[in-house]
Amino acid sequence: MTVLRLARSELKRMTGGLLPKLTILALTMVPLLYGAVYLYANWNPYGHLNNLDAALVVEDTGAATSDGTRLEAGTKVADSLVEGNVFHWIPVADSDEADRGVSSGQYAFALKIPKDFSANLASPGSFDSASQAMLNVTTNDANNYLLSTIVDKLTTAVHSTVATEVGEETANQLLTGFGTIHTQMLKAADGAGQLADGVATLRDGSATLYQGTTELSAGASELQAGQLKLRDGANQLTDGAGQLSSGLSLLKDKTASLPTDTQTLAAGAAQVAAGNAQLNAKVQDVASQLEAADQGLRTRVVESNNRLVASGVLTQEQANAILADFDAAATSSPVAAAKTRLQSDAAQIQQLADGSEAVSVGAAQLAAGTPALKDAVSQASGGADQLHTGAAALATGEQSALDGAAKLSDGARRLDSGAAQLAEGAGTAADGSRSLADEIGKGAGQVPNPDDAQKDNLSRVMADPVAVSNVSQAKANSYGAGLAPFFLTLALWIGIFMLVQAMRPITQRALASNAPSWKIALGGWLPFLAVSVVQASLLTLVVNVALGLDPAHPVLMWLFMLAAAMAFSALIQGIVALLGSPGKLAVLILLVLQLVSSGGTFPWQTTPQPLHVVHEILPMGYVVTGMRHLIYGADLSMILPTVAGLVGYTLLGTVLSTLAVRRNKYWSLKTLKPEIAV
Fold first, then answer.
1. Which positions carry the signal peptide feature in this UniProt record (predicted)?
2. Is 160 exposed, middle or buried (0-12, 13-18, 19+ CB in 10 A)?
3. In whole angstroms, what is the distance from residue 68 CA to residue 14 CA?
């Protein structure tokens, strides 16, 4: 008995009457009913979302933007949604009504635009009150679980569009602000430059002032030294006048014995004449020193004023006023009074000297002129007293002048120190202001100052900085095309699984023959293969022609489906042949395991780790992947290895079937009366 004869015998048995023929026909249609009908029902659900009623609530009251225009973003979003016609949008008056409609199922979901939507969109123009604009979505999974996912995609697209538009406007305002900052910083740089020039002028003037105050301090020190000499001279004059007064007093006391002491008087008169001459010389010397000191001080004041006028510190009028004040002070000062007194005393001393000389000359006549001499001595004594008093006053005045000169010198030194600090500070300020001007200029160059075209471009980039360039190496044309590889493979397995309900994996007649086990196994499998080939061919034809799957490689796809039918039929036939009725449960379990591990919907890598092992072992995952490559036009390098694997699964199925034949050739009571009938 040949393999083909065994297969033909089983096929004749299955088609021997009308009912068996109808059964085979129904079994042949199982994959078509499961795969094609399901794909037809779900071929393009996203293209019919406009049949879903969705509530649209627009409560936005609008807002004024920073440039004075009116923003009505809520109305704009609502209009764009209605024009897009993705869903059947139904305007609803308020949120409560929309929520009631979603709860009752009247609306699939509700999209609500709150009253502050535009205001929040415009808020990024103010750093203090920026707020996010919200789109409120109400869904109800009792209406449909997948609606939440679909609505999320819609609202994400709306969010991206609105955020890009508003972000572009906000970025444009920000860039305009940068241009304003740039302009103002340039003005600030110009002002800082002018400030630097002014401070440089101040630095030069303060340096000149410092030079003048240094010279003034030196002059004041010299004036103090001159006043010290004048004071010492006045003290010496006082001492001399005191001595003169004492001498004249003594002379007065001695005039009583003048007649007897004429000769002594002559000698004393000569001495007095000499002393008067010395005193007069000292007085003249003191007067000359005072005059020289006054002239020297005035000269220094004039020179200092000239230098200050030349450097611009003082004006000529201010210098003249200072000189006039100095002359007035010099005229009314104690020094001037002392000079006047000295001149008067010098005249008196000169007179005394002349008188003494006359006394010396007329000593011989002194005895006769004793009364006159006595009066003269008395007058001289009085003049000496006056001279002593004047000299004392001169000394006091010179001390006051010395104290004033000391204060002037100390003030000049302080002024010089302050001028030095001013000059140093002005130099530092000049350097700092110049650095400030330079740095502001550099900063202005670093602040963006885009033109209108640049602002438009930058605004678009800042509002939507990341763009996605999708390059699809292989793409499904529709939702149904995306599910087709999985459901075609699943339908093929289910269709072949249904064959074991009407077809026997191994016939008892074949087992009773003397044919080798492998021939019997192949003979039992070939009917399954024949029907599964018809199933696969019919399913492929209907999906490609009626549904318009339009695979990239239609012939290769059909041949690949035949290879899958070969492997599936061999495995299912071999398992049921080996295990009997429990084998059907095993095939069903394999179906469930492959259903969750083949990666038909979500990638198989996202399943729990134990299911990864199932994916690697069982054939359905490989068939789904191969179908995707053939339908979408991806790389075909994995098709041949996959087909080789399907051949391996086919061989595994025939091995299981052969083992079943060998085991079932030996009958037992369990064979004659099985616990579960096949």
1. none
2. exposed
3. 85
For residue 667, give Cα distances in angstroms to 514, 578, 661, 662: 14, 14, 11, 11
Instruction: Compute the residue count for the chain.
Output: 678
The count of other CB atoms within 10 Å of the CB of residue 105 is 12
Number of helices and strands (H, E) in the chain?
A: 21, 6
Q: How far apart are the first and last CA of the chain?
A: 24
Tell me the C-alpha distance between 615 and 612, whole Å: 5
Considering only CA atoms, give the Rg of the chain: 65
Question: CA quadruple 440, 456, 167, 126: dihedral positive or negative?
Answer: positive
Q: Which residues pair with 112 in a beta bridge?
A: 57, 136
Mean pLDDT over residues 167-185, rounded?
54
Q: CA dihedral in degrees (65, 70, 76, 78; nearest 10)?
A: 100
Q: Which pair of tokens denotes residue 362?
A: 């007329």
**Per-residue b/e over 10-41, b at no fewer than 16 CB within 10 Å?**
bbeebeeeeeeeebbeebbbbbbebbbebbee
At 49, the amino acid letter reads L
* Other CB atoms within 10 A of residue 399 CB: 16
Q: Indicate the SS3 state at residue 93.
A: coil
Q: Compute the distance between CA of residue 73 and CA of residue 406 in angstroms, rounded to an integer.
A: 85
Average pLDDT over residues 19-30: 64
Residue partners of 314: CB distance under 8 A and separation at least 6: 305, 308, 322
Please tell me the distance from the alpha carbon of residue 268 to that of residue 261, in angstroms, as a whole number. 10
Separation between Cα atoms, residue 87 and residue 106, nearest integer Å: 14
H or E element that contains 136: strand 136-139
Question: Who's near 147: CB < 8 A, 6+ residues apart?
Answer: 52, 108, 109, 139, 141
Return the DSSP state at 116.
T
Average pLDDT for 256-282: 69
Residue pair 457/177 in contact (Cβ under 8 Å)? The answer is no
Beta pairing class for 136-139 and 109-113: antiparallel
Residue 420 DSSP SS3: helix
b/e burial code for range 498-533 (CB count within 10 A of at least 16 → b): bbbeebbbbbeebbeeebebebbbbbbbbbbbbbbe
Cβ-based neighbours of 667, under 8 Å, separated by 6 or more: none
HEC sequence for 113-144: ECCCHHHHHHHHHCCCCCCCCCCEEEECCCCC
What tokens does 459 get?
């605004």
Q: Which of 269, 71, 96, 236 is nearest to 166 (CA)?
A: 71
Predicted structure pTM score: 0.52
Strands 63-64 and 136-139: unpaired
Give one DSSP letter per residue of 437-505, joined into a string: HHHHHHHHHHS----HHHHHHHHHHHHS--------SS--SSHHHHHHHHHHHHHHHHHHHHHTTTS-S
Pull the structure tokens for residue 633. Answer: 């036009």
Q: Looking at 19-28, 56-65, 192-201, 527-536, which range is the least confident one?
A: 19-28
When pLDDT is averaged across residues 598-611 and rounded to a whole number, the result is 81
Work out the number of other CB atoms within 10 angstroms of the CB of residue 446. Answer: 8
Residue 268 structure tokens:
């004393």
d(CA 139, CA 147): 8
Q: Can you read off the two tokens belonging to residue 19?
A: 């009912």
> Position 222: which residue type?
E
Q: Which residue has the tokens 């007058």?
A: 379
Residue with tokens 């293209």: 47
pLDDT score of 175 more than 60: no
Average of per-residue pLDDT values in the chain: 74
